[in-house]
Amino acid sequence: MMFGQELSLPVVVSVVTAICAVAASWGVVRFQAAQHDRRIARLDERCDALGRELSTFREAAAQRFVTVEMMSKLEERVVGAIDRLADRLDRIIEARANGPRTG
Question: Are residues 15 and 47 in the same domain?
Fold first, then answer.
């Protein structure tokens, strides 16, 4: 091969076709990347919104829902009230059993 030899038409067409294919592929990749960037931005906004919503829910839940400590204190109060009621009933039953009998 000589340096001064001209390239044949099929070789030139092949090279140009390859360059066009690479350029088109690059354009498609850039377009898809831009689409993905926009989608990621929307998802980030949605995640932020859901995070804010979750924080709001947690605050509301902390204010509304009963904690284990609160349930324990309530249980103690209910059991204490039942015990006092049982003591009163025991005294009433004993008083009737030991009281004067008329008959």
Answer: yes
18 and 50 together in one domain:
yes
Q: Which residue segment(s) compose the domain that 85 sits in?
A: 66-97
pLDDT per position as a tens digit, 23-69? 999 999 999 999 999 999 999 999 999 999 999 999 988 888 888 88
Instruction: Read off the tokens for 61.
Output: 């839940």
Query: Is there a domain that residue 103 lies in?
Result: no
Residue 53: C-alpha distances to residues 45, 47, 60 (Å): 12, 10, 11
pTM, full prediction: 0.48
Structurally, the chain folds into a number of domains equal to 2
Query: Pseudo-torsion of CA 28, 33, 38, 41, nearest 10°?
Result: 170
The Cα 45–Cα 53 span in angstroms is 12
Distance CA 87, CA 94 (A): 10
